[in-house]
Amino acid sequence: MAKIDELNILGVEETARNIVNRKIIPIREYYEPMDITDEQKERRIKAAERLEDAFVIALLLLSEFDETPSEMVLTQVMTQLQSDLLQAYESITTRVDDEDVLAHVSRVSQEIVESTARHFTDPYFTSEDRATVLAENDANYIVSYDEYEDAEADGCTMKRWKTMLDKKVRDSHRDVEGEEVPIGTPFFVGDSLLMFPGDTQFDPDPAEIVNCRCSVEYF
């Protein structure tokens, strides 16, 4: 299975899941069309801007090598990225120490560093463009996670999956448009279980979370 950003999905219909590689969308333009409130958009924009710095630093460290870095170096960069992401999260959520958040940061940091090593000769994998894509997707995760936890704490009992209802929506997401489930039950999206768009706790197919513009309504 391809890992986190070895797929970058959003745009032309190249396959049934509308997969297109390296579609770079500036942060504000990425979130503006989403079917969420202006406040939710601004939270994601600010989160992505903070997270982008963490990803830029990690990729810059790896780009300084002429050949694939050693396992020791990759581990050091991975550890640094985890620390930088958690520091950025502190300005986004009060739930930095949650088990699910810590597991997400560990998983994502490992996958990003390992995918960089696998594609080390490809300049895109150490580029600022990639850092932007990573930040947009990770901001979606951490803000959506916070919204889910807030909704549960506020006593919401149900949730509804919402897509953008346009031609860019991947088929598996269109299939769950409008679906309502109890708040503690995951949506079955394609072959993956997602508590909310961008959720990673059940090790989903990256094709179901990368560049997802869906949202969830809680009630």
Put the structure in a nutshell:
The protein is mainly alpha-helical and 219 residues long. The chain folds into two domains: 119 residues, no CATH class; 65 residues, no CATH class. 46% of the residues lie in helices and 8% in strands.
Number of domains: 2
Tell me the Rg in angstroms: 17 Å
Given as residue ranges, the uncertain stretches (5+ residues, pLDDT < 50) are 9-21
Compute the number of helices. Answer: 6
Sum up the overall morphology in one term: globular
Q: Going across the major beta sheet, what is the strand order?
A: 2-1-5
Please give the largest β-sheet. Answer: 3 strands, antiparallel
**Global structural class:** mainly alpha
Strand content: 5-15%
Portion in helices = 40-55%
What is the number of beta strands? 5
SSE succession = HHHHHEHEEEE
Through-space gap between termini: 35 Å
Helix and strand topology:
Blueprint lengths: L26 H5 L6 H26 L7 H19 L9 H20 L9 H26 L4 E5 L8 H4 L5 E3 L4 E3 L2 E3 L20 E4 L1
Antiparallel strand pairs: 1-2, 1-5, 3-4
Helix pairs in contact: 2-3, 2-5, 3-4
Describe it for me?
With 219 residues, the protein is mainly alpha-helical. It has 6 helices and 5 strands. The chain folds into 2 domains: 36-154, no CATH class; 155-219, no CATH class. The protein has helices at 27-31, 38-63, 71-89, 99-118, 128-153, 171-174; strands spanning 158-162, 180-182, 187-189, 192-194, 215-218. A 3-stranded antiparallel beta sheet has the order 2-1-5, with helices on one face. Strands 3-4 form a two-stranded antiparallel sheet. The N and C termini lie far apart (35 Å).
